[in-house]
């Protein structure tokens, strides 16, 4: 990457952009930030922040940031002492720099090494503007599978059970929407719906409803609550045994006539 200062008119833009860029930063942006702090014109002679502050801004670990800064400073020292075409680097403004209006270039773009500008100011300006726009543009959060069904049960079953009104539109990346998305990713839509209904109706979860606990508590204990929900689910009862009454056969009837007929049959068999 070309190294040098960020031109003066872009200093405010870069300050705002570096606050908005989410970490961890790629090395290219880190080098750009170090180049900004290394040039007194760009940073208006402010001192470069310490390693800890830079590491927090970049989203890096302190050790990684310290090693990178040390290596970058070493390269900068080598570049300063390096000659171009057998001559020392010419960092003096060119003749055109004294009159930007006639040259069409600002004094910042005329700083040269061997006749070449240190920084492509137009590319740098475009990058800073693009980064600012990307960071400020709202990003639609992705909803997990089963989101609509889970939201409906949460709004119509769980929220009334804990004595709260319908929640404003949920977003899967913030607040209770984030907790609901966590349940869906952890258990799936069927088990999440079962869990919400269990917490809204089970006697074991009465304290949730009495205290008005929302999804943060449910997420924290979701595995245990789901086990209870499964164990409390009604099991299908086995079909009852069907008892069919069958009258005794005639030969076992205890009436006198039956006994007489049975003796006659027995006697006939013996005679034969």
Structure description:
The protein has twelve helices and four strands; from the N terminus they run H-H-H-H-E-E-H-E-E-H-H-H-H-H-H-H. It has 272 residues and is an all-alpha fold. It folds into two domains: 8-89 and 106-136, no CATH class; 147-232, no CATH class. Strand 1 and strand 2 (87-88) form a beta hairpin. Helix 1 (11-20) runs parallel beside helix 6 (121-136), helix 3 (51-58) packs across helix 4 and helix 8 runs parallel beside helix 11 (222-232). It is rod-shaped. The N and C termini lie far apart (124 Å). Residues 1-9 and 88-119 have low confidence and may be disordered.
In short:
This protein has 272 residues and is mostly helical.
SSE layout:
Layout: H1 11-20, H2 27-38, H3 51-58, H4 62-81, E1 83-84, E2 87-88, H5 100-103, E3 112-113, E4 116-117, H6 121-136, H7 147-161, H8 175-201, H9 206-211, H10 215-220, H11 222-232, H12 256-271
Antiparallel strand pairs: 1-2, 3-4
Helix pairs in contact: 1-6, 3-4, 7-8, 8-11
């Amino acid at each position: 990457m070309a190294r040098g200062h960020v031109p003066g008119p872009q200093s405010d833009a870069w300050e705002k952009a570096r606050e908005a860029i989410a970490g961890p930063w790629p090395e290219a942006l880190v080098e750009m930030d170090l180049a900004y702090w290394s040039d007194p014109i760009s940073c208006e002679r402010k001192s470069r922040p310490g390693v800890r502050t830079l590491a927090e801004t970049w989203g890096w670990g302190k050790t990684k940031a310290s090693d990178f800064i040390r290596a970058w400073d070493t390269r900068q020292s080598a570049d300063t002492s390096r000659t171009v075409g057998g001559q020392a680097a010419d960092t003096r403004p060119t003749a055109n720099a004294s009159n930007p209006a006639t040259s069409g270039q600002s004094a910042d773009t005329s700083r040269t090494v061997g006749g070449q500008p240190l920084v492509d100011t137009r590319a740098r300006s475009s990058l800073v503007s693009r980064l600012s726009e990307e960071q400020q543009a709202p990003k639609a959060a992705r909803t997990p599978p089963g989101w609509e069904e889970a939201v409906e049960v949460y709004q119509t079953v769980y929220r009334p059970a804990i004595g709260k009104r319908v929640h404003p539109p949920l977003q899967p990346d913030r607040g209770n929407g984030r907790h609901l998305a966590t349940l869906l990713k952890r258990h799936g839509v069927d088990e999440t719906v079962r869990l919400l209904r269990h917490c809204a109706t089970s006697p074991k979860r009465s304290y949730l409803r009495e205290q008005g606990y929302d999804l943060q508590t449910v997420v924290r204990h979701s595995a245990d609550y789901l086990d209870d929900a499964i164990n409390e689910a009604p099991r299908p009862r086995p079909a009852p045994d069907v008892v069919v009454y069958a009258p005794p056969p005639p030969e076992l009837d205890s009436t006198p006539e039956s006994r007489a007929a049975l003796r006659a049959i027995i006697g006939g068999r013996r005679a034969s």
